[in-house]
Design goal:
Structural class: alpha/beta
CATH class: Alpha Beta
Largest sheet: 7 strands, parallel
Number of helices: 8
Distance between the termini: 38 Å
CATH topology: Rossmann fold
Helix content: 40-55%
Number of strands: 7
Shape: globular
Strand content: 5-15%
Number of domains: 1
Radius of gyration: 17 Å
CATH superfamily: NAD(P)-binding Rossmann-like Domain
Length: 255
């Protein structure tokens, strides 16, 4: 059996109707996992799930809409998954928001709260909705998709980077609490990736030039390249890793 084989596993991935989240559900399905595609609107999720099921000729994916800012939506996401598949082996907290682009001096309080609630507190909610059955089974992998922004300051993405730094510590604390139960918690910290979420950063030629000029690989990332790290952390290949942050940025943070 391959170290990266996910047959028999069930994965829930938030924010998975597009971008990095979509790449993760597609690649986990490729490795044999049953996957739950989730975002705020059900139609895009159903499209992704249908494409996965058509590719493999079986029900390997279901769609469950969930707004991460609503605890009851997250509870429904977990309940629907348990009703369909009976267990959750892998949780990927990928969904996030950033409603403010500019200096923190101009950041409204309500937007700051929204960023922290969606990017940190919602992860905490969802993890503790899933963790009890992982604890009972003595097995589980939890992955938080953070950002290299959490490693450095930023003049226009301050609140977002603060929330992503908090995710690093959330993973470390949960790794300590859940480790005795053989439940692993890790973060992935992507650099600039070609997604709709980051479009404002890579679609601008000048911004793109500046970013890639400092990157040893000389380019931005693609969603599947982040999905590869998620497969590592979710599979047998990553069973001795917990409380860690894997940077996937083409080397940008080392220069």
């Amino acid at each position: 059996m391959s170290l990266f084989d996910l047959r028999g596993k069930v994965a829930v991935v938030t924010g998975s109707s597009r971008g990095i989240g979509r790449a993760i559900v597609e690649q986990m399905a490729e490795q044999g996992a049953k996957v739950v595609v989730s975002s705020r609107n059900v139609e895009p999720c159903e499209e992704v799930a249908a494409a996965i099921n058509k590719k493999y000729g079986e029900t390997r994916a279901i769609a469950v809409a969930a707004n991460i800012s609503a605890k009851e939506h997250l509870a429904n996401l977990v309940d629907k998954t348990m009703q369909t598949f009976g267990h959750i082996d892998i949780l990927v907290c990928n969904a996030a928001s950033n409603p403010h682009y500019g200096p923190m001096q101009s950041l409204p309080d309500e937007k700051f709260r929204k960023i922290l609630e969606n990017n940190v507190i919602a992860n905490h909610w969802l993890i503790w909705l899933v963790a009890p059955q992982m604890i009972a089974r003595k097995d589980g992998a939890i992955i938080i998709v953070s950002s290299v922004g959490g490693l450095k300051g930023n003049a226009v993405l301050g609140a977002y980077t603060i929330s992503k730094a908090a995710d690093f510590q959330l993973a470390r604390n949960l790794a300590v609490e859940l480790g005795p139960h053989n439940v692993r918690v890790n973060c992935i910290a992507p650099g600039l990736v070609r997604t709709d979420f980051a479009r404002a950063l890579w679609e601008n030629p000048e911004t793109l030039k500046n970013s890639t000029a400092r990157t040893p690989l000389g380019r931005i990332g693609e969603p599947d390249e982040i999905a590869g790290a998620a497969i590592l952390l979710a599979s047998q290949a990553g069973t001795f890793m917990t409380g860690q942050m894997i940077v996937v940025d083409g080397g940008a943070t080392i220069t």
